[in-house]
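Protein Record: Sequence and Backbone Structure Tokens
======================================================

Structure line: whole-number tokens from a learned vocabulary of local backbone shapes, matched to residues.

Purpose: to set a sequence beside its fold so the mapping can be learned.

___
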Amino acid sequence: MLRVYIGGLHFDSYTKCAWISLTSLTTLGLLSKYIPYNSLINLIVFLKLFCIILVYAPVEHKNRPLKRNEKIKFKYIALAILFVVYSIQILIQTLMGDTNISNSIMYGVMLSGIIAMPVFKNVS
């Protein structure tokens, strides 16, 4: 959900995108399974992404130019989604005690922030 409004990294071929996505998602799954849940690290990841969204989002792509009002709208929608996702993640952790799901959400959010960074703007 966040990726739609944050924007970010794009590749020049479907194959490249599929392989990088598969590798990233597999790595995130393994991280969430084998690295213990830590509420402080979780909070830091979400706060960092909040800052990334404020500063960089939405990241435009040449195939999807945005008008000024769309940029503002997308930024606020991304922040709202981030708040909802963080709240859901906290509820899952608190009510269910499921650290694998909580970690998966956190690492997915982290990936959304990483690919929105300016360093990836010209990667293809």
Observations:
- The CA atoms of residues 9 and 115 lie 5 Å apart.
- The mean pLDDT is 82.
